[in-house]
Amino acid sequence: MARTLVDVLKTSSGSGLLEEGMSAIEVAEMFVEKRIDAACVGSKGVLVGVVSVRDIVKLVSRRADLRSLYVGEFMTRNPVVLPGEATTEEAISAMRRGGFRHIPVVDGHGQYLGVVDAIELIYDAIIKMQTQFIPTRRAFTFFRSKTEGLRVPTLSSIADKSEAAVLTTDETLLTACELMTETRSTAVAVTDSAGVLAGIVTSRDVLKTIVGNFGRAQDTILFKVMSKDPVYASGSDTLLLALQKMQARGFRHLPVIDTGKRVVTLVSVLEVAGNAILDDDESNQSTTSIQADSQGESGSGGFWSYFFSSASLNGESMERKESVLSPGGSPPAPKPISAFLVFKFQDKNREFRRVKVPMRLERGSYDKFQLEIRRRYGASRSSILKIKYFDDEGDEVRISSDEDFEECIESALENQWKTVKAVVEEVQTLTDTSSRASISASLSYSSLLDLEAKDDGGSGIATECSAQDKIREAMGLLQNGNVKAAIRCYDEAILIDPSTANAYCGRAAAKLIVHETEQALEDYDRALEICAERQEIVDQSALESFMDVCNSGIAEALIELRRYEEAGKILSSIRSSQCRDETVSAFLDELSACKDSAAKAQLSDACMEAVDLYTSAIRIDSTLEKEIGHPRQAKLLCARGQCYVAVDDVEMAAEDYNLALQVDPENRDALLGRAEALRKLEKYKDSKDAFVTYFKLFPKDEKTIKSFEEVKKRVLEADSKKISDLGSVLKEINLPKI
């Protein structure tokens, strides 16, 4: 099921409706405090406008008094709105068409729900692309096809079309605001006197300066407020790498430099995403079949529609690090950067441990983080842990909630930390029941990966962590197309812990990619057996969702083995709408592939091969009708009937045409095919009736008229013969005289 704007608003921060009487400086203070870029304005609870950081920057550029201007005087009135049930894909398309970055969301009664940010939507999709997959062949082949397409275009394709918003370090913040307003951007690159990149100033820097009373814009030079030594890219970097660089650190802008580190342009995440993903999505709306091999081929549908709707299991992408200039002066080939933050701490044995967490959090992230810390630390689930980290001033700060965890991540982003130094202390013991309940209550099925550990006991924790590390490594290898290496990683994970259901599920998907279908079925079955054994331990919602994933994979394997009816029964048992959609798509892909192959065989006069392929397509068609009410296609039966005619099996052809007419009583090919088949079977009266029915619906042509005339002649001859035979019989009968 596609992700809607209501789903996005559940996990996003924001504000309620602002009053028109708020001053511009109060709005700026709120933006800084809540770390947001836009808010909606209401009057008596009714949405009337939108205000953004760009509006504040525009006021600063005009030297306006922010304390005497009120929201109602500068907001954008009557903004475009979207309903809460609109998809994220629709929201991004609307933003791109309208040239705006925020859209208010309303319910069915027009009541305000919140405001969505285009960049947050894009980052959400990239996070899913990197870390969240249903471990099936379709998901991985789709990912591979999309990322391969993004590795080709480079930033130079954008740089050639855009003008650089560049100032020098000695220019003022006011000048920066004027340039942002003129270029309709929210950032400028800052260079030294030689034109070499020195920093970047964003609209958020403007607001922090104004709100913090650090000076007037016209008196503040950029050197004092800019972010120094920013992450940058070269024109030869791919759009995919640029997106990953920005997403990994939460950046919205990225300077592009030449070999001398001089600024070529400053690109935004919207520009890069528009070229890397949105254009591709708009040009790829039709469903195509997936015949995957070990390298992966093109999947179906658009990037956004797929990744915004993906159910997930946890995994990690390969890390990426920003590139630097080589001694020769030219940027080297880019290395992977990370979408994760590393927490480093000492376990019970005073050995250092590292835990990775995604930089973009969701509800329950702290519970998952705490569970992983607990395992690596060596604590049992019957204890409470105190987890602290050192902030930018060297103070220990406690993490005990999602809010604390989010603040820690935000500090890491602001300070560009690669590693967070943490302190873990075991302080209290609880009962197993209360400890487990508090954790499992907030975990979704994507957390099954973390719930697979056995009851703790020193060495068991380290073993389980090693197994999960191997699983994550395998996921990364699969995402990068290295299927055989991924299978080896899954093998190692299973050797470490044979009761890890996720390893069997992932290995099954990998084996499907290389067409080891029978082995894939065995792995999926083993994963389900493990799930059945853990029904009393694992969160039931997570367990059911994981089982749906396995069943979706089993159905996919059965489809490849042409055991369509069995796959249909599996489909009927899947509860998750996302997994059902995936399985139906697998059926439809197979149906399309069978039809296409059958048509090619038919054109090549390989009619018996075509009959086999059409038979497979008809079986799929019948299964989909039975399981989901998918309308049957009479044309498949007609096509097979034509093949039967070509090999002189006219009786089978007539049967297919009759079946086709049961599906569609007015199908032209079926009506005409039945009439012709009956003619060849010398059932002339039935053929004549069939032709009469055909002519009531469709015009006559020379060929059909010729066949019809022949049939009428044969019927007439048959009738004449019957009369003649009857006369002969009557002559031989001695009738009594009257």
UniProtKB/TrEMBL annotation:
Record-linked InterPro entries: CBS_dom (IPR000644), CBS_dom_sf (IPR046342), Diverse_CBS-Domain (IPR051257), PB1-like (IPR053793), PB1_dom (IPR000270), TPR-like_helical_dom_sf (IPR011990), TPR_rpt (IPR019734)
Pfam families registered for this protein in UniProt: CBS, PB1, TPR_8
Domain CBS stretches: 75-131, 159-220, 226-282
Alphabetical list of CDD domains matching this protein: CBS_pair_SF, PB1
PROSITE patterns (UniProt xref): CBS, PB1, TPR
UniProt keyword Phosphoprotein, yes or no: no
UniProt xrefs under SMART domains: CBS, PB1, TPR
Top-level division of the source organism's lineage: Eukaryota
Residues in PB1 domain copies: 338-427
Keyword Manganese among record annotations: no
TPR repeats: 634-667
Keywords recorded for this protein, A-Z: CBS domain, TPR repeat
Regions that span the bilayer: none
PANTHER family found in the cross-reference section: CBS DOMAIN-CONTAINING PROTEIN, CBS DOMAIN-CONTAINING PROTEIN CBSX3, MITOCHONDRIAL
Name recorded for this polypeptide: Uncharacterized protein
Organism lineage string: Eukaryota, Rhodophyta, Stylonematophyceae, Stylonematales, Stylonemataceae
